[in-house]
Amino acid sequence: MSSSSTPAITPDSLKATLVQKLDASHVAVEDLSGGCGQAFHATIVSPQFTKKTTLARHRLVNGALKEEIALIHAWTPRCFTEEEWKKKTEDPSGAGGV
Questions:
Q1: pTM recorded for the entire structure
Q2: CA–CA separation, 89 vs 31, rounded Å?
Q3: Which residues pair with 41 in a beta bridge?
Q4: pLDDT computed for residue 27 by the predictor
Q5: More confident residue, 67 or 98
Q6: Cα 74 to chain center, whole Å?
Q7: How far apart are CA 85 and CA 59, in angstroms?
């Protein structure tokens, strides 16, 4: 068993993949596993989410991270279009209607 052949999954590596594959304008990934790289929560803003349902957005993200998701225990994406994200971040309550 060689762990050196499997690259470590980090918030930065997930972010880089999402930016590259989804043309994401904003990605924030949080490691919820205490640093062991097994559980992540992500906020992703991409123009590719426009006119897509939540399920379709998650499928896009999961397709982009297929190899990475296979190696981790828990993955929770929150996906927004540019317009949704702008509304959410401009709303001081944080509710944003999304």
A1: 0.84
A2: 22
A3: 30, 76
A4: 98
A5: 67
A6: 12
A7: 19
